[in-house]
Amino acid sequence: MQRIVVGITGASGSIYGLRLIEELLHAQKEVSLLLTDAGRQVLAFETGLQLDVDPALCAKQFLLHYGAVGHLQNYRMDDFFAPIASGSSAPDAVVICPCSMGTLGRLAAGLSDNLLERVADVALKEQKKLLLVPRETPFNQLHLQNLLRVSQAGGQILPAMPAFYQKPQSVEELIDFVIGKILDQLGIEHALFTRWGD
Q1: CA dist 181 to 5, 33, 133, 191, Å?
Q2: Where are the domains of the chain?
Q3: In the CATH scheme, what architecture does the domain 3-186 have?
């Protein structure tokens, strides 16, 4: 079973991370959720979803809220004994969605002060897929340099930039376009948007 870590940081756009987890569980993937403190605050503000700080309760809340079933694990950000913290048990892919500029900067500098940053570092060193979904605008030169550094190290940058050629009729369709692009990069089939020429 494909093992995927989804990190949600304090950037605006936590709905992208939540929707991605929904789709990964629907596709029967094993998902580990890593939620930063700022990510938890922004998620609660933007979506109204108040996730518990206790990892087991947080995972249960998520599954109940979305009526989802599947393999969802949640770890504390200071739990460096989590299996995903080691290259010997590296996940197949890590998606940070949304990715704050602070998290980006620490990744670009090779720093890992919490479990999410450590797992991203593991993905790079083990040559696993690392996808960053930045949700910031405009970018300053430091942001651009950091995005380039992570890309050069093997990460992939997938900005939360929906397209309009599929003529979206709702905000949900705009979100699903971005999620569909992430799933494409993970090699997961979906029908979240109409492809060009279809």
Answers
A1: 17, 20, 11, 11
A2: 3-186
A3: 3-Layer(aba) Sandwich (3.40)
